[in-house]
Amino acid sequence: HVQLVESGGGSVQAGGSLRLSCEVSGYRFDSYCMGWFRQGPGREREGVAQIGSDGTITYGDFAKGRFTNSQENARSSVLLQMNSLRPEDTAMYYCAAGAGGGGMCYKKSFHYNYWGQGTQVTVS
Q1: Could you write out the DSSP letters of every residue in the chain?
Q2: What is the pLDDT of residues 2-39, one digit of tens each?
């Protein structure tokens, strides 16, 4: 069955870095968008970064210049390098897969059908 498994979360001090990984199994999402989302305490789930089947990457405004989204191994791994972390980046981070539309990846979480269990990132 389809599995998306995130790892790499943890606790860091402000200014530090973390590298999140999403391992995909059970399905080849070659034509899908792969997205990273996060949800902080009392906040709605928001898009962090999305990568399309053609490799096009989009970022949330807060992630631009600090986070880097990439993929490896024919999309069986999706990575999120996070630098210059801030306390407001504290959240549960999720990996997700969705079909996209019109050749573009959606930034809203409700467009994504497959989700991992999340990995916690805490910045103090």
Answers
A1: --EEEEE--EEE-TT--EEEEEEEESS--TTSEEEEEEE-TTS--EEEEEE-TT--EEE-TTTTTTEEEEEETTTTEEEEEE-S--GGG-EEEEEEEE--BTTB---SGGG--EE---EEEEE-
A2: 899 999 999 999 999 999 999 998 888 888 899 999 99
